[in-house]
Design a protein that fits this description.
Elements lengths: L7 H9 L4 E5 L2 E4 H17 L7 E5 L4 H12 L3 E4 L6 H11 L3 E4 L4 H6 L6 E4 L8 E2 H6 L14 E7 L7 E6 H15 L6 E4 L6 H12 L3 E4 L5 H10 L4 E4 L1 H14 L8 E4 L6 H10 L4 E7 L6 E5 L14 E2 L4 E5 L12 E6 L6 E2 L3 H7 E2 L2 E10 L5 E6 L3 E4 L2 E4 H9 L4 E11 L3 E10 L7 H9 L10 E5 L13 H13 L4
Parallel strand pairs: 1-11, 3-4, 3-5, 5-6, 6-7, 10-11, 10-12, 12-13, 13-14, 26-27
Antiparallel strand pairs: 1-2, 8-9, 9-19, 14-15, 15-16, 17-18, 18-21, 20-21, 21-22, 23-24, 25-26
Length: 512
Amino acid sequence: MIGVKLTQPLRRNAELFPDRIATVVGEARTTWGSTLDRVARLAAAFRNLGVGPADRMAILSLNSDRYIQTLYAILWAGCVAVPLNTRWSPRELEAAIEDCAPSLLLFDDSFAAVANGLKMTGVGLVAMGSGCEPAMSLEALIASSEPGEDASGGGNDLAVIFYTGGTTGQSKGVMLSHANLFDNFMVQHALIRYELGGTFLHVAPMFHLADACCIFGMTMLGATHAILPAFDAKTALQIIEEEAVTATLAVPTMIEMLVGESERSGRPIGQIRNITYGASPISEASLLRALAALPNARFAQAYGQTECSPVVTILEHEDHRAGFLRSAGRPIPGVDLRVVDDEYQDVPRGTVGQVLVSGPNVMLGYWRQPELSRSTVVDGWLRTGDAGYRDDHGFLYLVDRVKDMIISGGENIYSAEVENALMSHPAVLQCAVIGVPDPKWGEAVHAYVQLRNDAATTVDDLHVHGQSLIANYKCPKSFTLLSEPLPMSGVGKVLKGELRRRWAEQMGNGAA
């Protein structure tokens, strides 16, 4: 038995609600019947190009209706979708493409120059927008093909690969199955209680699993996908009103901006019934403002990882005002959670340790990294690398990132990746990066850099060097240049706790 298929809800919607609007982008509206037709034709075109079952196909695009259609067409053809981070540098994109070896790279107009400039071998190019030589045109492929039968895998078959940053500086391809994604969203829905047949606003990037799982999930519920290519608070508020949006997913920074726009316009956001947020908790002051601006909305915080498809815990609406606001919530049904010490033994409630997760949401493994997969998922338990504790009510509180991950504006930034980029500068002898509080983005990247003797460089030089190797959002927003060594432990490790203490003292003294 093949098990659940992510393509089945698409077929269901086209059968039951063929004239219902599936996607809205600006003035463009596409029904479920038309969406299915385009998906089936595009999938057939892929097969006609010689793409075989389980081949990978990469997508480099801003949010759009074509993004959703392409994602489903890849699965319909029996292949594996690989969404690529649109904020990556060409070097990072090339590393991921070399790793997953896709048959095709599909890109929109925003990334035409980037896609055509990438160094890669044996990868066909498909333009999702107006098209440019030597790429094939997505629209031409659809127009020239007859609809093909659904050849999608299902159950535990590999459906998607999402790349996530690694502490070694190399991204890891997280392999997720149809069942991983299908089951995880349906359990989320049982707690969050989304409206059937509503309208969901996509403001988070679709290359993030947080939003991609909503593509699959909202399709399961027969909802309309209202799509913003990129987040803008004023435009988002306008779409919410015009399209009667009932639900959305955002990071707290986006919620702050949306609430601010609502307050400036004097228009409460009364249509939204569900707002799910993640990446970090929301402050009490922000929550109170948001509750006033969204008077009919149920709030839910979701904590998880790409490796968990992605949700592990949910802080339900009622718990936001019951003294658990700083919590990440409790495990969703079907998911077990442990907090362990360095020997992987359970610790008492209230004691900080590493969070382990087990359940049907745990990934298949890392693409082409079997050893890392085996060391990350041991006896069915995923070692998240997150540090936290549970209280007597079972709520999870996250206190740090075991792997020194920094979260800035909802983006995961791994310190080792940034440090590797800075260390390649000839003037840098030693460096360490930490996350420091930022009023807008939650955290910002700050770098402590020890320069080599007589080295001639500036903060601007270091920033430009970093931008040439890693995405701009990962580059440090501020630097401390040192002539003395960084604080080190007895075994030669940088004491980042000491650096955080220094930063706090510096800020406390009013230093810039």
